[in-house]
Design goal:
It contains eleven helices and eleven strands. It has 288 residues and is an alpha/beta fold. The strands form two sheets. Strands 1, 2, 3, 6, 7, 8, 9, 10 and 11 form a nine-stranded mixed β-sheet that branches. Strands 4-5 form a two-stranded antiparallel sheet. Strand 6, helix 6 and strand 7 form a beta-alpha-beta unit.
């Protein structure tokens, strides 16, 4: 009889308890320089050239925005529509072969004569697979799912590709992959698939950044950090996030004074088009 009571109690306890998994913690001993679309101030954004230049300039992460083409290719591209055949066309309605007709290098050269290069004219939009094939595990990836609701099951597809390159295996030091999005449901899906991946919830505030205690409790169920527009960042916001065990990564900062200010306020990472400048100022402020 006693054994029956004990067994019943254990079953009841198991039935009433939920096994919870905490989000991964981002390393606290390194301020991250995150190359926004690569070194996109100096080379065409989201191209191998921009990513390689960012790595050469000391970036800790190269940032990729992901969309999916009509024929199912994950591509690094900021906008969900491009001017092709004299009209805006959604990436989801374009095949990869059609997308390669677009020249990010020619567009960059026209807009940035000081950094223009004839070699950029031959650059094209690249797939995630091309990026991972080129760089492998020699760099770290900060990936944004731009419009995940437009691409059903993109989360699982992304993790499958990352896993095939061995990038989701835990290693010492900085995580090989961080994933961010404005879409909380998408991040929660990723967390359910692989809770070891650090996730960053993106926000854009019109005034000073603020999140309620209830919001923080919800975010902490799946996220490791917050991405926020730099003009909304305050010291109080960063301290509040740190007290909730959340890192803060302001975006997108390209002038020296603002980079310095963000670091002095305690930002844990900086999104920038100029990773050389951010790396230099980081060294001056934090010593490494």
């Amino acid at each position: 009889m006693r054994k029956t009571i004990v067994l019943f109690a254990l079953l009841l306890l198991c039935g009433c308890s939920q096994i919870t998994t905490e989000p991964s913690l981002l390393p606290s001993d390194e301020v991250l320089v995150i190359a926004h679309r690569g070194a996109s101030a100096y080379a065409p954004a989201h191209t191998i050239a921009a990513y390689q230049l960012a790595i050469d300039m000391g970036a800790n992460y190269i940032e990729l925005d992901l969309h999916r083409t009509k024929d199912g290719k994950l591509v690094a591209l900021h906008d969900e529509a491009l001017p092709l055949a004299h009209e805006q066309q959604a990436v989801s309605d374009i095949t990869m072969n059609e997308l390669k007709l677009y020249s990010p290098g020619m567009e960059f050269n026209k807009a940035n004569p000081d950094y223009a290069s004839p070699t950029y004219n031959d650059l094209h939009i690249v797939t995630l697979d091309e990026i991972l094939t080129h760089f492998g595990d020699t760099t770290n990836y900060y990936i944004e799912l731009k419009s995940p609701s437009n691409y059903p099951a993109i989360e699982k597809e992304l993790l499958t590709q990352l896993s095939s390159y061995g990038l989701l295996t835990h290693t010492e030091g900085l995580p090989k992959v961080i994933i961010q999005s404005f879409n909380a449901d998408s991040l929660k899906t990723i967390f359910s698939l692989d809770p070891a991946i650090p996730l960053v919830q993106l926000y854009k505030f019109e005034e000073d950044a603020y999140l309620s205690k209830k919001q923080l409790q919800q975010i902490r169920q799946y996220a490791s950090g917050i991405g926020v527009n730099s003009e909304a960042v305050t010291k109080n916001f960063i301290e509040t996030m740190h007290n909730a065990s959340l890192h803060v990564h302001p975006y997108t900062v390209n002038d020296p004074q603002t980079i310095y200010n963000m670091l002095m306020l305690g930002a844990d990472g900086i999104f920038t088009d100029k990773p050389d400048l951010a790396s230099q100022i980081k060294k001056e402020v934090v010593g490494k």
